[in-house]
Amino acid sequence: MAIVLQDVSYTYMANTPLERQALSGISAVIQEGSFTAIAGHTGSGKSTLLQHLNGLIHPTSGQVLMDEVNLQGKGKAERRRAKAAARQVGMVFQYPEQQLFEETVEKDIAFGPRNLGLSEEEIEERVQSAMELMHLDYKAFKDVSPFALSGGQMRRVAIAGVLALRPKYLVLDEPTAGLDPRGRRKLTETITRLHREEHVTIIFVSHNMDDIVRLADRVLVLAHGKLLAYAPPQEVFQDSRILEEAGLQPPEAFKLADELRQAGFDIPAHAMLEEDIVSSILRLYRQGR
Amino acid sequence: MLSDITIGQFFPGDTFLHRLDPRTKLIALIFLMVAIFVFHTFGVYTALTVFTLALVFASKVPFGMILRSLKPLLWILLFTFFIHVFSTPGESLLHLWRFDATLEGIERGAFISLRLILLIVLASLLTFTTSPLKLTDAMEALLSPLKRFGVPAHELAMMMTIALRFVPTLIEETDRIMKAQESRGADFSEGSLMARIRAVIPVLVPLFLSAFRRADDLALAMEARCYHGGEGRTQMKALSFHRLDGLAFVFTALFLIILTISSGQLGGVLWG
For chain B, which residues make up each domain, given as ranges? Predict the structure, then answer.
């Protein structure tokens, strides 16, 4: 099972002078169980692409298949099937805490499951498990107003609200933006655990190349609405032309490795993370070089 | 749906309508609007329609955009039209329950609708060809003689600038929040009226919160840059009249004078 993008193009405000092509001819397969990163400069079409993944917007041309169901259904029966398929994809927007609206944390997280028309017991069970996944103590937080929480906690409540829909695929648009380093690290860990233990397919947008190298098994690089690369991050970042064209900075450690290599030190090409570089340097040091 | 809103949308260009001083355009618009309300004759309306179409053509604003500015008022237009069709006394064409559609009514409805359309098109031409900043500058300049009587001209203009500035931002924000709630299974297009009203709450609460937050931030940012009202404030691009403006004034005045003189002779009065 997978999300399949077939030659997806999207034009904003088509047939007006403000017409703008946001995506052109994107084809990619996002396999179930994968951990995919989406990278690109501001305005490269990342957010537009994300919105295609759960049928919020439909391609101007081309199609998006979700487990073989076209998300743009024609006719009533097909549209219902498309809607059900799109529900498999949970969408966490940028700054998701801005979508909170209920009086209590519990009610807000229950909003999604309630819209699905589930029974009260099922809703409560889902709220509890979603809060647990996001490290929010059910008893301590359920009756608290979401607006009384800290930024990081609000964000976790908002993500729990999406997880309560039990999506197979979770799409996150810059999930760690605006958090402090500790909140950033905790949220990253939580997302990794969702992938590893709950087997949720993760698709996330990030500007942090270190995160991408560390977390993702594939990275999809966009520039000006076109697909520049779709491969494991180690491969993509070795090709400096891709990064340059996409206007992205390589991971910090990668830059250091590059400089060491140019100075004549033997650093393996796959070394991209801090810890890889550190161990390479240690190895070289012990070898007495 | 949300992208249909064209209020305050500016179409950059370099036609003479774009180059005119915003004050000229604003004054001319006011006179033309008065003319639309004052005159009732067939000939004058033909002249005004031709004049408006000529301006639309000269502005190079695409015709589709002009039509879209009429779209939000479609229901009001239809409503006005049918009220007149059925409420004007005259020869009955169609009898429906207690009401009669009359030929006179159709004629009158058509003219009232045309009047509304002309008003809207002229007003949107102003906003299409004038940047919001220039427009509020012009408003401030024209209102400033009233400052003596305590009219807060600068504050009104600043409020308008800010409001116009945030229209697109709030539209974008609404769109984003609606999509976020839709992703959580909210449905805005189906269900009973009550269900739909209830469906708006998850959008309105976050929208208001963010609007207040924005207002706070903006106030802080303005204060941090020493904004203290209009007193002694100068403009980077001061408004100035040019020959083109003089020509435009003369032309509009001539046009209106000719209309006034000829209104008694052309076509005859349509209604009292």
Answer: 1-130+241-272, 154-237
Here the ipTM equals: 0.85
Strands A2-12 and A61-66: antiparallel
Q: What is the pLDDT of residue B265?
A: 56
Structure confidence at residue B121 as a pLDDT band (50, 70, 90):
very high
* CA atoms of B248 and B270, how far apart (whole Å): 30
Hey, what are B195's tokens?
Answer: 């269900």
For A206-210, B60-64, B75-79, B86-90, which range has the lowest pLDDT when averaged over its residues? B86-90
| Residue A174 reports pLDDT greater than 80 | yes
Domains of chain A in sequence order? 1-88+205-249 (3.40.50.300), 251-289 (no CATH)
Residue B42 has pLDDT above 70, yes or no: yes
> Residue-wise over B152-183: b if at least 16 C-beta within 10 A, else e?
ebbebbbebbeebebeeeeeebbebbbbbbbb
Q: Crossing angle, helix B63-70 and helix B103-129, to 10 degrees?
A: 120
Q: How far is A185 from chain B (nearest CA, A)?
A: 24
Residues 6+ apart with CB under 8 A from A245: A223, A228
Q: Is the minimum CB–CB distance between A112 and chain B shorter than 8 Å? A: yes
Structure tokens at B262: 């000829």
Q: Cβ contact (<8 Å) for A56 and B64?
A: no
Contact between B10 and B127 under an 8 Å Cβ cutoff? The reply is: yes
| B44/chain A closest Cα distance in angstroms | 33
Write down the pLDDT at residue B2: 53
Average of per-residue pLDDT across B179-184: 91
In angstroms, the separation between the Cα of residue A106 and the nearest Cα of chain B is 15
User: Across the interface, do B185 and A87 touch by the CB < 8 Å criterion?
Assistant: yes
Q: Verify whether the Cβ–Cβ distance A17 to B65 is below 8 Å.
A: yes
* Closest partner CB to B181 (pick from A13, A54, A99): A99
User: For the whole model, what pTM was predicted?
Assistant: 0.75
